[in-house]
Amino acid sequence: MSKLMTSERIQRLNALLNMLCDNSYVTREDLMRQCGYVSDRTLENDIRFMRRSLGAKIRYSRSRKGYILEDVGKYVLNR
């Protein structure tokens, strides 16, 4: 199940990563609005990609109702 790395997707992933790095936690609604997501499924697919392909430690906190990036490191997107 390979996803193409379009420039639009790279921009979304970059915006997602920047929001997670700049905030202690980010709600799904904030990610959807500020990163340009039009569906929950696309957001979930991008988070899954970042976890599996980039090793990003992104988790969801039920108590805070938001996503948290536990290890801010260097993530490189290859085309």
Provide the fold topology.
Blueprint: H1 7-22, H2 28-35, H3 40-54, E1 58-61, E2 66-69
Antiparallel strand pairs: 1-2
Comma- or semicolon-separated keywords:
79 residues; two-stranded antiparallel ribbon
Description:
This protein is mainly α. Helices cover 49% and strands 10% of the residues. A two-stranded antiparallel ribbon has the order 1-2. A hairpin with a 4-residue loop joins strand 1 and strand 2 (66-69). It is globular, with a radius of gyration of 12 Å. The mean pLDDT is 86.
Strand order of the largest sheet: 1-2
Low-confidence blocks of residues: none
The rounded distance between the terminal residues' Cα atoms is 16 Å
Overall, the morphology is: globular
Question: What's the helix-strand series?
Answer: HHHEE
The chain-level structural class is: mainly alpha
Q: Write down the oligomeric state.
A: single chain
Number of helices: 3
Sheet with the most strands? 2 strands, antiparallel
The total count of strands amounts to 2
Rg (C-alpha, Å): 12 Å
Please tell me the overall pLDDT.
86
Question: TL;DR of this structure?
Answer:
This protein has 79 residues and is mainly alpha-helical. The chain contains 3 helices and 2 strands; from the N terminus they run αααββ.
